[in-house]
């Protein structure tokens, strides 16, 4: 059966881990220990095996272990659909992050073709109540999990938009300059909108029938006024041209995919996610992530790797058990963190268990048993 799993992980000068070497057998991994011991640092290292800035969105220099500040390296052996890869990502002091796959330098986008990864971290608990930027980023990470080329469309759109914004701020009036940039934005923007729409449909269709443990979320994408109705490249190009005077007054582009928002409704109650209780918001978010994983398992051919930071602590025993059962049924390699081993007792032999401790700012990891 095809699978996606990390079989070994080596952290060098990565935050609190001076040198940590771990081996995994494909089962879910329960990582426990006191706050500040370095559990989330392991998940962050894993998240850097996928494109982007990782689950903390940290700059490379912020990751290096102090006080040495020598740079850092993450190395992993990955099985992906019957193929085996050696993946390294690293940054020397003061340098940008590099990616090496099977001994060859590679663009970050190449990671998305090998590793599909989803995560849920405590900072996302405020997703439904804070600004649209975080929800847009969440939507794009879901989209990227299905379509790695989505990242290239986003980068192309943002590059052209920055140049257009520069023209707006300088009050350039030459329509030809605007037209060329707006065509680039429209072509990339149409791909972004199509990718996002397809993702929402896939995730909506994969939500669990177990509404008690994982409530259904009705998802929709909200587009700013003046964004073009059909969303194809011609509509977007026309919308950008039509909005030049307004945008010039504002000094920036006011319509387009960069202003979209993700909306969610607690389906059983008909309540917008922002108005649901804190526990309901967390359950909705987990339900969406699990639905994303289920849909991706069909699309990619194997379930994605899941990084679930401190998720178990927010749920009662029944919902924790339902979560663990769902992960095991999916067949995903999931990495879960919590402060105590008791949070994972219903996993038993279905999972590996690692205890993380910290002494003098240095993390160490030991294998334990949940039985």
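^ structure tokens above, recovered residues below v
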């Amino acid at each position: 059966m095809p699978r996606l799993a990390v079989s070994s992980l080596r952290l060098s000068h990565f935050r609190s881990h001076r040198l940590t070497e771990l081996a995994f057998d494909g089962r879910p991994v329960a990582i426990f220990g006191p706050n500040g011991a370095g559990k989330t640092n392991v998940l962050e290292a894993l998240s850097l095996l996928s494109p982007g800035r990782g689950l903390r969105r940290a700059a490379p220099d912020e990751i290096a272990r102090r006080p040495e500040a020598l740079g850092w390296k993450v190395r992993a052996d990955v099985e992906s659909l019957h193929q085996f890869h050696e993946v390294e990502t690293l940054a020397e002091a003061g340098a940008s992050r590099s990616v090496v796959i099977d001994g060859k330098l590679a663009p970050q986008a190449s990671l998305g073709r090998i590793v599909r990864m989803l995560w849920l971290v405590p900072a996302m608990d405020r997703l439904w109540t804070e600004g649209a930027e975080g929800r847009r980023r969440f939507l794009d990470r879901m989209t990227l999990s299905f379509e790695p080329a989505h990242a290239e469309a986003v980068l192309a759109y943002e590059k052209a938009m920055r140049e257009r914004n520069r023209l707006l701020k300088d009050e350039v009036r030459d329509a030809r300059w605007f037209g060329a940039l707006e065509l680039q934005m429209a072509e990339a923007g149409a791909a972004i909108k199509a990718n996002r729409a397809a993702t929402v449909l896939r995730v909506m269709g994969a939500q669990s029938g177990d509404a008690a443990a994982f409530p259904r979320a009705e998802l929709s994408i909200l587009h700013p006024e003046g964004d073009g109705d059909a969303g194809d490249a011609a509509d977007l190009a026309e919308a950008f041209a039509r909005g030049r005077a307004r945008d010039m007054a504002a000094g920036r582009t006011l319509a387009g995919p960069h202003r979209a928002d993700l909306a969610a409704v607690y389906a059983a109650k008909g309540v917008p996610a922002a108005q649901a209780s804190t526990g309901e918001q967390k359950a909705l978010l987990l339900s969406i992530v699990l639905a994303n994983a289920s849909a991706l398992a069909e699309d990619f051919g194997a379930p994605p790797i899941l990084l679930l930071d401190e998720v178990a602590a927010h749920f009662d025993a029944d919902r924790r058990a339902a979560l663990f059962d769902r992960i095991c049924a999916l067949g995903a390699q999931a990495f879960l963190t919590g402060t105590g081993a008791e949070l994972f007792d219903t996993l038993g032999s279905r999972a590996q268990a690692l205890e993380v401790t910290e002494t003098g700012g240095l993390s160490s990891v030991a294998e334990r048993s949940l039985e």
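The chain has two domains: 1-116+304-371, 128-301.
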